[in-house]
Every structure is written in C-alpha cells, then in structure tokens.
User: Which sequence fits this backbone?
C-alpha cells in the first residue's frame, strides 16, 4: 500500500476519465456551489483541483471572474492544463497549509473530495481564512465519517474500514475550521448521477481512478470487480448510478 497514491502519475492519467460526470450533473453541482458565493462573479480558489474539472466548470457555467486551481500533485496539474484549460483559470502548485496566494483575494473557496487528504485541517483553515476576503465562503464537498454511504463499499468492503480511519467527522471539520476563525453556515446533502448505468460505472472503476484503490492489493481489487461484474450481469433495467456528498459551508 502507498502512503499517498493521490500523487502518483498513474492515478493522474486515469483520474479524469474515471471521475468525470455527465454535463447535466456537473452543471447542477456548479449551480449548487455557486449558490453559496457572496458575489455574482466570484474569484475562486479551487483547493485540490486535481484535473481541474470544477475549476473549468466554475469558469464556464458560474461565470467566475478568475479560478485559481491549486494542487500538490504535478501529475494532476499537468492533466488539468491539458484537459481543463480556460482563459479565466490558472493552475498553481502548492499545498493546503502554504497556499501560494496573496491575502484576501478570493470570494469563494472550494475543497471537493480533498479534505481527507489534508493532514493539518486547522492550518489549512487558517490559510483559507487568510486568502478569503471578509465575507468570503468556503465550500467543503466531502463525505463525513458518519455518512459513508458510497455504493463502492458494496463491492470493496475493505474500503469502508480504510475510509472510517481517514475521513473526518462533521464535528472534527467544524471544530478545526471554527478554531481558525471561520464561521459555520450550513451542512447540506446533494446527490447527482455520475453514470448512466451500473455497467458504465463498472467500466469507470476498472481504471482504479480514486486514490483509495491504491490501498487494495491486485487480488482484492479483482475480487471486488468480479462482484461488480455479477451485479452488472444481473441488471435487467439499467438505471443511473448516483453519488451523494455532504457539503459544509463556512464564512470568513
């Protein structure tokens, strides 16, 4: 098992294809995130931007004034530059605890599926507070420990035990962000389709496009894929596969 498979080039090469969602779902997420913006055309910090999916979407569909996507992984940033370029999007290398940005320049900060990768949430929250303008908003898109409900656990149950250890509780996040001077403003749940059928979802996961799969041995991964293949074979009426996330918001 690797300590931080998120930084690996092999993961970056399949991450975008394995995690993309239909335009309708991405538009819905972009609109939902945009509802929390304090201004109409925000300057956005996308922390843990990965391959830039949300950075590009916020520039295109939320009419962001500027989106700065920051990631620690050079391989992810290379994919972002290739796949998610836009005249109002800039990608920078940096860490969550030392953001390479000036003080008080952002209206909105997004952390999508990244907070579980961050070892020091309080220092990260303090950096976000520094980077946000007064009244700016942080949107944390994650799954909190008490509500780990992904379909993936039905086929790779080992991943639930792993995620219980690395995913924070809602109280943990609230406590750490509040300690940094950010004010909690809400906790919501939002779900959107990610694949048109179980078969399409299976084909995306066969790429091992999430860092958690790096914790499985080849035999463990193949066993889960066989279980999923059995479900695909039994699916007589294909239906969309949805993913639900918790969304925590904070004001600077």
Assistant:
């Amino acid at each position: 098992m690797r300590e931080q498979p998120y930084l690996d080039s092999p993961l970056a090469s399949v991450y975008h294809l394995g995690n993309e969602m239909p335009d309708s779902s991405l538009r819905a997420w972009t609109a939902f995130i945009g509802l929390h913006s304090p201004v109409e055309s925000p300057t956005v910090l996308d922390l843990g931007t990965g391959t830039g999916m949300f950075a590009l979407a916020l520039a295109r569909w939320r009419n962001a004034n500027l989106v700065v996507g920051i990631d620690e992984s050079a391989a992810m940033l290379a994919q972002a530059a290739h796949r998610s370029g836009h005249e109002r999007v800039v990608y920078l290398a940096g860490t969550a605890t030392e953001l390479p940005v000036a003080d008080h320049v952002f209206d909105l900060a997004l952390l999508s599926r990244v907070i579980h990768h961050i070892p020091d949430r309080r220092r990260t929250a303090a950096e976000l507070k520094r980077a946000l303008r007064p009244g700016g908003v942080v949107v944390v898109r994650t799954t909190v420990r008490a509500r780990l409900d992904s379909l993936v656990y039905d086929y790779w149950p080992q991943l639930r035990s792993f995620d219980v250890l690395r995913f924070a509780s809602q109280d943990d996040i609230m406590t750490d962000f509040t300690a940094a001077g950010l004010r909690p403003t809400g906790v919501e749940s939002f779900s959107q389709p990610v694949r048109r059928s179980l078969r399409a979802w299976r084909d995306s996961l066969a790429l091992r496009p999430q860092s958690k799969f790096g914790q499985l041995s080849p035999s463990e991964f193949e066993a889960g894929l066989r279980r999923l293949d059995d479900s695909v074979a039994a699916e007589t009426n294909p239906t969309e596969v949805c993913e639900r996330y918790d969304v925590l918001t904070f004001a600077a």
Summary: The first helix runs from residue 9 to 19. The radius of gyration is 18 Å. Residues 5-148+167-195+243-251 form a domain with the Rossmann fold fold (CATH 3.40.50.150).
